[in-house]
Amino acid sequence: MTDAHVRGRVVIVTGASKGVGRGIALHLAHGGARLIVIARRPDPLQALSADLDALGTEHLAVSLNVADRDGAFALVEQTVARFGRVDGLVANAQTFRPVTPLADVMPSDMDLLFDTGPKGTLWGMQAVFPHMRDQGWGRIVTMGSSSGMRAPVGYGPYSASNEAIRSLTRSAAREWGQHGIVVNCVCPVSIAHRAPPDDDPARVASFNATFRDQPIARDGDAEHDIGPVVAFLLSDGCRYVTGETFMADGGALMRP
Length: 256
Hints:
The chain is an alpha/beta fold.
């Protein structure tokens, strides 16, 4: 299933080389979007670029750390030079840190998560803003996590950084709606889970427990479950929807 509402739109997707970002990029490619795909590591980015070539998708693949504010502005200028405009930003990239008890969190943990999370998201938003303002149309999709609302043990810095992203989303929506720019946040269920081998019963039990109490009792598919939600938020269809958080999580937020 594809989404033609993004056909011809110029969309930047950060953190696009794997996981959720890769699935979103592929869904948008099937919908006919023109893409700028961003990641830090060149090898998986090149692999994605090859897949987009095979689909006939016009795109740029750029290696960039989203914590680099100057780099974000240069990227958007490169995008406009190539495509003449920028219509959408999917701010998906964020570096993750190992699960750590709150009492043991170090400054380096907080710095990394905030530099690549809310700060990296803000730099991208600032970079696309003047172009979207001048054309009177823009779509920004940020990526959060239900961990910010559920506060799971060991995820304090990550949860805090994702709540900061949701707050920035609402601020941008309030300030930029007058320019035809809508800004919304998507919180997917973790797509990092992979079914363990049957000969590892402890991991099988843990995997099954993750989804047991979820109304849609399975992991999300980045391309087919998360991608369509993002495509809607990049389309004309969401012209009267802004500042919202969309829980594309199979109902995971309702788990007891």
